[in-house]
Amino acid sequence: MGNSTGSTVDDLQAVEMHLWYKKFMTECPSGQLTLHEFKQFFGLRGLDPEANAYIEQMFRTFDMNKDGYIDFMEYVAALSLVMRGKMEHKLRWYFKLYDVDGNGCIDRHELLNIIKAIRAINGNENQDISAEDFTNRVFDRIDINGDGELSLEEFVAGARTDEDFMEVMIKSLDLTHIVAMIHNRRHSV
């Protein structure tokens, strides 16, 4: 009686999960997405080197067991986190994505390359402020100890207080076109 809303939500999630599964298996019948298929899956072709490196890093971050493939569960976990996850979890995931060399901090070069890649992918290369100036501004604002690297703590705290930086992160994983693609194929699959 009192749980009717919960089962409706569960039903909705089950329908959505089924749609994601059909989309995934239609695009990737083997059940394992390679880097090449990942780029095709999300319509990412002809990227410049920075954008390509960013997409490869995103693939490696989604590939949680590091076997060189993204299986359906990794795909769902990543989409779920990006689309519905709590801000704290998203920020930790963004940090992992941006920490390209995996050393536990983000340096200026890593952040600069991410900013350039995001702009190239989103078609926002002509901004009021250059990628270099934006990177410097982020570091000036959130690199609390001034060591030229952002720790996880600095990154999370800075993202929560710097609206410009938060907006860039949100754009870096704007998956609205993917949700639309899944929704549009609901009737065609």
TrEMBL record:
GO terms for molecular function: calcium ion binding. SMART domains: EFh. InterPro entries: EF-hand-dom_pair, EF_Hand_1_Ca_BS, EF_hand_dom, Recoverin. The keyword Transcription does not apply. Keywords: Calcium, Lipoprotein, Metal-binding, Myristate, Repeat. GO terms for cellular component: photoreceptor outer segment. PROSITE patterns: EF_HAND_1, EF_HAND_2. CDD domains: EFh. Residues 50-85, 86-121, 130-165 form the EF-hand domain. PANTHER family: CALCIUM BINDING PROTEINS (PTHR23055), EF-HAND DOMAIN-CONTAINING PROTEIN (PTHR23055:SF164). This is Guanylate cyclase activator 1Aa. It comes from Dicentrarchus labrax. The lineage of its organism: Eukaryota, Metazoa, Chordata, Craniata, Vertebrata. The gene is guca1aa.
